[in-house]
C-alpha cells in the first residue's frame, strides 16, 4: 500500500485494487483565515485527482474544498459516503458533478472491487463537526490503515476488532477559536491555551495507545494564518499556550511519552507500507523544513496576499439590511427550537463594526423572547464582536452554518459570563430547517435516554457514559477529590451534586461507593 501526503488531513491511498483520495483541501478556508501548511498548492493535482474513490470525511471547509473538488478531482471517482442523518454532503458533492456513490453503513465493512475493504464510522451528534464527522478504515492484502483525521470517537474498539492496524492517521493539533479570540488578559489566555494544548496531546496519546498501530501519522493540522491580522496565531513565537503545534512538535512531545513510530507526511511525501515495514521518502528533509518554518510562512504570506485581499473585497454588501435579514432567517428557527433555545437560555449579542471600524451596531438574538432585535442595554452572557461585512457576506451566501464560517475564521472576539455553553454554537451551526430539526430531535432523544450502567471511579459510583457525548468513563474518567474529568473532551463534573462544571446542563448521576 502506498500513502502519499497531500497536505493537512488529505492523503492518497494506492492499492492494487484502486486508489482513494481523502479530504483534499488547497484553497483558503473560513474567510481566508486558514491555509494548509506545509503549502500543497504546487502539487500535481491533475494526477493526484485521477482516482477511483473519493472520501470526504465531513463538511468542514478544511476537508471539503468545493472549488478544488470541482476543478481537480475526477468525476469518475466513486464517493465513499459516510452515513449521516442529513443529505447535505451528498447533495453538495452531486452539485459538483459527482454521480457515483457507495452509501456506507456506519461500522460495517464494505467489500469493493479487487478485494479492497473499507469501513466508515460516522459520528452524528450536533457537536460532531458540522453535524457529523467520520473516520475511514481501509484494508487490502492484509494491510490495514485507519484515517481517523480529526474525528473523536469515544473509543477505537470497533477498528481494533477488525485486526491489527499498520498505520494510524490522527489529529494532534488545535482546530478551534478558543481561547485566542476571548477578551481575556494575555496571562489567562496563555494558561487556558496551555491547558488545551496539553489536553490535545493527552487525547492523542490515548487514541494511539488504544489502537497500538505499527506507525502513527500526525495529520489534520495545524492550519497556518497568513493574513497580517491573524499572523500571531501561528506557533512561531515560543508561546506554550499556542494550540496549533506542528508535526515537528508532535514528534518531540511523542518522544517524551516513549513514542518512536511517528511518521510525518509533507505534501509530496510517499510511504510504502507493508505488513512488516515502512519506507518513507520526502521532497525535502523534514527536520530541515520545520527548522525553516518562519521563512516558509513568510514566503507563503507574500505569495497568498493577493488571494486574501481578493476575498476581503468580496465580503461587503452594503445593500443588505442586516437586522431585517437576520430577523427573517433566524426568528422562524427560534420559534421551532425547544432544546437549543432552552439550552442557550438568554440573549446573545453581536456587536458589528462598521467598514471603518468607528461605529458599532449591536443586535441581540433573544432566545427566550424568540426574536432578533436591537440591543436594549440588557445583561448578556455571550457577546461576539466582528466586522459587519462578515455578517453581510453570510447573509448574501445564505450560510446555514456560522461555526463552519465565521467562528472558525477567528475573525471575531468573544466575551462570556460563566460557563461555556455548547448550545450557543450548536444553534449557530443549525441555521436551516433540516439541521435544526435534526439537532432538536437528537437532544430530545439524548435528554430522555437514561444510562443504567454504572462504573466505579475513585470511591464513587457514576454512570458509565459521560453525559456530554457518551464517552466511556471507565476508560476516560479521572477523579481528583470530588471532581470527575472526562479526558476525551476535558469536561468536568462535581460529583456530590452531579453538576457539570464545564458547561450548562449535562448533570451526571453519581454517589459515593459503598464501603
From TrEMBL:
Name the UniProt record assigns to this protein: Putative Rieske 2Fe-2S iron-sulfur protein
Keyword Metal-binding: yes
Domain of life where this protein originates: Bacteria
Residues covered by the Rieske domain: 462-515
PANTHER family for the chain: N-ACYL-PHOSPHATIDYLETHANOLAMINE-HYDROLYZING PHOSPHOLIPASE D
Cellular component GO terms, alphabetical: cytoplasm
Taxonomic path: Bacteria, Bacillati, Actinomycetota, Actinomycetes, Micromonosporales
PROSITE patterns the UniProt entry points to: RIESKE
Keywords: 2Fe-2S, Iron, Iron-sulfur, Metal-binding
Matching InterPro entries: RibonucZ/Hydroxyglut_hydro, Rieske_2Fe-2S, Rieske_2Fe-2S_sf, SCP2_Rv3818
Gene Ontology molecular function: any one: metal ion binding
Amino acid at each position: 500500500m502506498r500513502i502519499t501526503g497531500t497536505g493537512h488531513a488529505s492523503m492518497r491511498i494506492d492499492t492494487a485494487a484502486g486508489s482513494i483520495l481523502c479530504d483534499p483541501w488547497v484553497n483558503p478556508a473560513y474567510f481566508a483565515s486558514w491555509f494548509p501548511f506545509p503549502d500543497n498548492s504546487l502539487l500535481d493535482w491533475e494526477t493526484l485527482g485521477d482516482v477511483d474513490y473519493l472520501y470526504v470525511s465531513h463538511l468542514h471547509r478544511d476537508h471539503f474544498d468545493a472549488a478544488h473538488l470541482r476543478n481537480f478531482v475526477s468525476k469518475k471517482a466513486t464517493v465513499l459516503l459516510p452515513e449521516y442523518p442529513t443529505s447535505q454532503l451528498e447533495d453538495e458533492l452531486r452539485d459538483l458533478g459527482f454521480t457515483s456513490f457507495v452509501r456506507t453503513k456506519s461500522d460495517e465493512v464494505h467489500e469493493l472491487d479487487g478485494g479492497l475493504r473499507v469501513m466508515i464510522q460516522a459520528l452524528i451528534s450536533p457537536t460532531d463537526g458540522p453535524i457529523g464527522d467520520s473516520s475511514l478504515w481501509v484494508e487490502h492484502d492484509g494491510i490495514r490503515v485507519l484515517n481517523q483525521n480529526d474525528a473523536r470517537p469515544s473509543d477505537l474498539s470497533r477498528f481494533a476488532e477488525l485486526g491489527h492496524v499498520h498505520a494510524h492517521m490522527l489529529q494532534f493539533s488545535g482546530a478551534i477559536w478558543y481561547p485566542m479570540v476571548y477578551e481575556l488578559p494575555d496571562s489567562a489566555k496563555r494558561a487556558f491555551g496551555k491547558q488545551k494544548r496539553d489536553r490535545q496531546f493527552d487525547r492523542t496519546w490515548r487514541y494511539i495507545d488504544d489502537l497500538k498501530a505499527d506507525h502513527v501519522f500526525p495529520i489534520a493540522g495545524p492550519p497556518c494564518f497568513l493574513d497580517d491580522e491573524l499572523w500571531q496565531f501561528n506557533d512561531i513565537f515560543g508561546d506554550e499556550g499556542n494550540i496549533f503545534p506542528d508535526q515537528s512538535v508532535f514528534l518531540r512531545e511523542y518522544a517524551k511519552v516513549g513514542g518512536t513510530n511517528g511518521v510525518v507526511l509533507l505534501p509530496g511525501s510517499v510511504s510504502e507500507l507493508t505488513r512488516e515495514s515502512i519506507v518513507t521518502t520526502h521532497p525535502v528533509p523534514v527536520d530541515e523544513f520545520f527548522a525553516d518554518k518562519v521563512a516558509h510562512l513568510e514566503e507563503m504570506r507574500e505569495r497568498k496576499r493577493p488571494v486574501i485581499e481578493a476575498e476581503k473585497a468580496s465580503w461587503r454588501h452594503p445593500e443588505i439590511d442586516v437586522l431585517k435579514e437576520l430577523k427573517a432567517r433566524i426568528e422562524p428557527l427560534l420559534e421551532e427550537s425547544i432544546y437549543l433555545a432552552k439550552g442557550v437560555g438568554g440573549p446573545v449579542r453581536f456587536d458589528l463594526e462598521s467598514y471603518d471600524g468607528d461605529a458599532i451596531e449591536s443586535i441581540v438574538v433573544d432566545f427566550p423572547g424568540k426574536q432578533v432585535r436591537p440591543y436594549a442595554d440588557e445583561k448578556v452572557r455571550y457577546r461576539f464582536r466582528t466586522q459587519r461585512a462578515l455578517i453581510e457576506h453570510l447573509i448574501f451566501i445564505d450560510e446555514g452554518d456560522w461555526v463552519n464560517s465565521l467562528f472558525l475564521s477567528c475573525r471575531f472576539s468573544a466575551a462570556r459570563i460563566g460557563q461555556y455553553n455548547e448550545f450557543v454554537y450548536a444553534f449557530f451551526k443549525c441555521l436551516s430547517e433540516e439541521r435544526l430539526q435534526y439537532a432538536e430531535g437528537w437532544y430530545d432523544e439524548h435528554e430522555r435516554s437514561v444510562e443504567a450502567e454504572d462504573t466505579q471511579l475513585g470511591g464513587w459510583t457514576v454512570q458509565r457514559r459521560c453525559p456530554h457525548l457518551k464517552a466511556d468513563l471507565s476508560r476516560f474518567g479521572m477523579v481528583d477529590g470530588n471532581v470527575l474529568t472526562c479526558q476525551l473532551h476535558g469536561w468536568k463534573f462535581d460529583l456530590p451534586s452531579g453538576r457539570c462544571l464545564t458547561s450548562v446542563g449535562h448533570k451526571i448521576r453519581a454517589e459515593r461507593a459503598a464501603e
